[in-house]
Amino acid sequence: MKSLDARGWTALALILLLVAVPPLARTFDQNFYLLLFTRVVIMTTAAISLNLILGYGGMVSFGHAMYVGIGAYAVGISSFHGLNDGWAQMALAMAVAAVAALAIGAMSLRTKGVYFIMITLAFAQMIYFVAVGLSRYGGDDGLTVKRRSDFGLFGLKDPAVLYYVALAVMLAALWLSWRMVNSRFGLVLRGAKSNDRRMAAIGFATYRYRLAGFVVAGTMCAVAGVLLANFSDFVSPATMHWTRSGDLIVMVVLGGMGSLFGPLFGTVAFLLLEEVLSGITEAWQIIFGPLLLALVLYARGGIDGLLAKRTERGDG
Amino acid sequence: MDLILILEQTLNGVQLGMLLFLLTAGLTLVFGIMDLVNLAHGSLYMMGAYFFATFTRLTGSFLLGAVLALVATLILGIVVEIVALRRLYARDHLDHVLGTFGLILFFNEAARLVWGPAGMSIPLPPYLARAIEILPGVPYSAYKASIIVVGLAVAGFLYWLVGRTRIGMLIRAGASNREMVGALGVNIRLLFTLVFGLGAALAGLAGVMDAPIRTVQIGMGENILILAFVVVVIGGIGSIRGAFVASILVGLIDVMGRAFLPELLKLFMTPIAASTAAPAISSMLIYVAMAGVLVFRPEGLFPARGG
Amino acid sequence: MKYALLAAASALALAVQPAAAQIKIGFISTFTGPQAAIGNDMRDSANLALEHLGGKMGGKDVQIVYEDDTFRPEVGKQKTDKLIQQDRVDIVTGFIWSNVLLASYKSVLDAGKILISANAGPSQLAGDQCHENFFSASWQNDQTPMAMGEAMNRKGIKKLYIMSPNYAAGRDMAEGVKSTFKGELVGQDLTKWPDQLDFAAELSKVRAARPDALFVFYPGAHGVQILTQYNQSGLKGTVPLYAAYTIDALSLPLQKEQALGVLGTQHWVNDLNNPANQKFVGDFRKKHGGKFPSFYGQQSYDAVMLIASAVQAVNGNAGDVAGMRAALRKANFQSTRGAFKFGSNHFPIQNFYLQETVKLADGTLSLKTVDTVFTAHQDLHAGKCPMKW
User: Fold this and answer.
1) Do C325 and C210 have their domain in common?
2) How many CB atoms neighbour CB B239 within 10 A?
3) Per-residue pLDDT reduced to its tens digit, C251-310
4) What CATH number is associated with residue C286?
5) Can you give the three-state secondary structure of C269-317, one letter per residue?
6) pLDDT digit string, tens, across residues C72-128
7) Structural domain spans, chain A
8) Does residue C179 share a domain with residue C88?
9) Domain contains C9
10) Residues paired with C67 in a beta bridge
11) pTM value > 0.80
12) Chain C partners of A303 at a C-beta cutoff of 8 Å?
């Protein structure tokens, strides 16, 4: 194994820092940062799942927040009916998300390019309006989760426990995405991204591979939704508004598409930037907007790309 | 259900469709010719409305304010193209989405800093503020009728411009083969800038026409932008004809859903459940229509580049 | 870039020190986007209240920390967490929107702090989910429309059409009118919130239903659209409009003459004749170039004054939640609305007035009290609240 490069070091440092967040927050009596980083860790899991299809598979899904919503509503609705078993909620969320992703993917993957962006948006909007129409579960106003999930061995009531569970899930998602990308499956997915026709010509049913990737990503994202509902004690359709899907894309691109740690870098940067800038001025978006444009124009590889460039320069 | 109500709702649908057409004509033009996904099109629409409110207030004239607003949006569009968007043409769609999303954030905050958060209203001149009788006993807003007229006029103008003029010929040629047109000595960059300016002016026109109805507000572009993209995609990217048909289709679906769905749902739901579910389902209908179209025709109703 | 961010974040973490000799009030409202005008009016009024108090409550300096919910429930919840955990405020107030309040209230109450809503009054929190540390300085959502229904009865209206947005307050408003209106409901529409700005389809249905009156509830920026489109539709001559929370000091400059003659009900009108109100409205107008404060501002002013009365009662020891609660229940302050006391569910028992949009002598548009609809009115949900005191 070759020695770590700049991005490897950054990722390692970041993960160590994330592990240390709860004791640090306690030492400095800054519980707010524990909450902030819980959100960071949960959203990173969602971004990792999007990166699987967007970064590696080239499928620009503009409806990924829908799966966060499915996971969140699985918790909200089951706890509304008195079911608080975390494992059951998790299974429900993943099953519903998988079925939804299978159906949506099967139809959407027939289209390409902008049409794919738009059709994934359309399906996400449909689910969004389904949630708005659920008057029994609060409709537009959302639903308060009165009791957090109970996983038998541990509950999620303690913020530090919730944080470590979310962190463990995030690390598992990272590991899974690393395994997948470097497997035969991942090679086909990446091959189909750069040249779909050639992959098909040498005998791969790329449609099926893409669909499988789409389903895995949706299912993984629903887990983030389950955690998010527990974290905010509240679910609402706003979780799956199309602008939230946009945020997820921004996180992935900001961090660096198709890189293992990109989603982690991107989510940390995005959420902290939002927090810091909005603390400075109410008009923070006037800074953030052009920053985004500049990123697209001048830093294609995102943060990961910047770190990689640094390494190259250092090496030689 | 009486016929007059159905007729009135059809007019409402067509009117909404015309407004959508004004917005989507520019969007699909830019989309089809430069292959640019411009989310900031909604911001240009918003800026058009703000310019309109400002110029109407300054000049005291509704029509003069409208004309000045169109010119201002055209100039703004050209500036945005030269400063930022020109660099995005060669990039992929994801970059377009992100970069122009950044522009939306910028324009929203800029508008707030310049005009304040409260928004602006534009009073209609008396000749447009009244209701006219389209049929005996059926009054209809004169202003909404004028939107239908303007929409039709713009459709006619674009049909003539793209199909019958030299500029239109260059536009069509530039869309199918940039290098070739460039090699023939046409300044492609200038052409693209002009097309983008035209698209911006059309967005501005939509903003101008919409301003007296919805009032001028920050973020007014985002609500309608998604609807505009739905129209473009249903119609087929780059197709003005497709945008026209799809606009009216989407306008009718939206209005008819809101108008008749609650009563329809009440047939098999409790009134309370029906009245809460109806707005959600009618908003969903448009997306169902889009997904349906794309599943059966993956390139929209009128694929512009088919042949 | 990321290193810089982390450094900035940790610098922030170290810089924040809990202040001891100071009262801190957290204030959640909307300061960006189209509804920011409401948030600004609330902030101006709360600041005016603080000014009238000399910047002190119970002998201690007061700081109000304002946070922007950006009109989104989940952001409201995040900002509430920040106020509680990071700014360590003693008490939280503000909240324009019912759905933002419903998403956020748990964060405050679970931390054992007191929450005073300066606007939103969802039925849940007035009924079975009432809480000993939750107070309302405004009204319960049903109350104003109940007064509206009664006012319409008095006007002899027999057939009514209702339009409101499809969210907590919108549905509460519709239910409120229905509970007191004695005539027939000939039609009702719930419209998509907040995206729907075009009401052509609904207004056509109103015309076809031929009601005696149309009741609408469209707060904030939406009030301008509904009024404009109502006027353009030609309904004005035939179907009179009754509006709750749709025409106020913030929307009037945009609605202009279109609002003239439209009737509404409210717990407070800027011309109410009591010293506290005259001082509030007078000083507000002096400070803001003749602009009238809105009811949102009035409630925020009252909320700050209410908090001040409680802090005074516990001699500045705002950490004494039990003492604060007992003092708040007494509502020992001069409300700008006149008589004010709390019901068992911590919602006010107060008068409701009929108001009309008029043109003042100097040509400005304003709201004027024309009648008292209810005296000392309590909301319907109080009975469902198990709290006793």
Assistant:
1) no
2) 24
3) 998 888 889 989 999 999 999 999 999 999 999 999 999 999 999 999 999 999 999 999
4) 3.40.50.2300
5) CCCCCCHHHHHHHHHHHHHCCCCCCCHHHHHHHHHHHHHHHHHHHCCCC
6) 888 899 999 999 998 999 999 999 998 899 889 999 999 999 999 999 988 889 998
7) 6-315
8) no
9) no
10) C28
11) yes
12) 1-2
CA gap C112, C325 in Å, rounded: 11
β-pairing verdict for C263-266 and C348-359: antiparallel
Q: Is C315 left (phi over 0), alpha (psi -120 to 50) or beta?
A: left
A306 touches chain C (CB under 8 A): yes
Nearest by Cα to C246 from C211, C199, C210, C207:
C199
Tokens of C145: 């429309």
> With an 8 Å Cβ cutoff, is B135 touching chain C?
no
Q: Would you call C83 exposed, middle or buried from its count of C-beta atoms within 10 A (0-12, 13-18, 19+)?
A: buried
H helix runs in B84-141, sequence order: 93-115, 126-129
Q: Which residues pair with C367 in a beta bridge?
A: C357
Give how many domains chain C has, as a whole number: 2
Three-class secondary structure assignment of chain A: CCCCCHHHHHHHHHHHHHHHHHHHHHHCCCHHHHHHHHHHHHHHHHHHHHHHHHHHCCCCCCCCHHHHHHHHHHHHHHHHCCCCEHHHHHHHHHHHHHHHHHHHHHHHCCCCHHHHHHHHHHHHHHHHHHHHHCHHHCHHHCEECCCCCECCCCECCCHHHHHHHHHHHHHHHHHHHHHHHCCHHHHHHHHHHHCHHHHHHCCCCHHHHHHHHHHHHHHHHHHHHHHHHHHHCEECHHHHCHHHHHHHHHHHHHHCCCCCCHHHHHHHHHHHHHHHHHHHCCCCHHHHHHHHHHHHHHCCCHHHHHHHHHHHHHHC
The ipTM estimated for the assembled molecules is 0.86
Share of chain B above pLDDT 90, in %: 48
Cross-chain Cβ contact C191/B279 below 8 Å = yes
Give yes or no for a contact between A131 and A237, defined as CB atoms under 8 angstroms apart. yes
Cβ–Cβ of B213/C189 closer than 8 Å? no
Structural class in CATH, domain A6-315: mainly alpha
Pairwise CA distance, residues A140 & C285, whole Å: 37
Residues C117 and C228 grouped into a single domain: no
| Nearest residue of chain A to residue B37 (CA atoms) | A114
Q: Quick one: which of C138, C108, C280 has its CA closest to C219?
A: C138
Residue A269 to residue C68, Cβ atoms within 8 A: no
Nearest chain B residue to C209 by CA distance is: B5
- Which of these, B216, B170, B233, lies nearest to B33 by C-alpha position? B170
CA A294, A300, A302 angle in degrees (round to 5)?
90
B4-to-A189, B138, B290, C188, C208 alpha-carbon distances in Å:
57, 7, 29, 20, 8
Query: For C166, which of A139, A232, A303 is closest by C-beta distance?
Result: A139
> B121 vs C34: CB contact, 8 Å cut-off?
no
The residue range of the domain holding C113 is 21-139+274-349
Q: How far is A78 from chain C (nearest CA, A)?
A: 18
- Does any domain span residue C51? yes
Q: Residues near A267 by Cβ (< 8 Å), separated by ≥ 6?
A: A40, A43, A44, A47, A251, A255
Q: Nearest-CA distance from C73 to chain B in Å? A: 18
Q: What span, in angstroms and rounded, lies between the C-alpha atoms of C28 and A300?
A: 38
Residues 6+ apart with CB under 8 A from C273: none
User: What part of A 216-245 touches C (C-beta under 8 Å)?
Assistant: 232-234, 236, 238-239
pLDDT tens for A150-200 read 998 888 989 999 999 999 999 999 999 999 999 999 988 888 888 888 888
Cross-strand pairs, A85: A150
pLDDT tens for each residue of C313-366: 999 999 999 999 999 999 999 999 999 999 999 999 999 999 999 999 888 899
Q: How confident is the model at residue A134 (pLDDT cuts 50, 70, 90)?
A: confident
